[in-house]
């Protein structure tokens, strides 16, 4: 069973851009969100 304090670390914040996802978008990848594209 997972511990509650670990659940927060596993969540992906899609409301803020992330450098790795922006790089993925720049390379034409599929693992990014509109917020990453808007910032990139």
Automatic annotation (TrEMBL):
InterPro entries: SAM-dependent_MTases_sf, SAM_dep_MeTrfase_SAV2177_type
Top-level taxon of the source organism: Bacteria
BP GO terms, sorted: methylation
Pfam families noted in UniProt: Methyltransf_19
GO MF entry, a single one: methyltransferase activity
Ribonucleoprotein in keyword set: no
The entry's keywords: Methyltransferase, Transferase
Name the UniProt record assigns to this protein: SAM-dependent methyltransferase
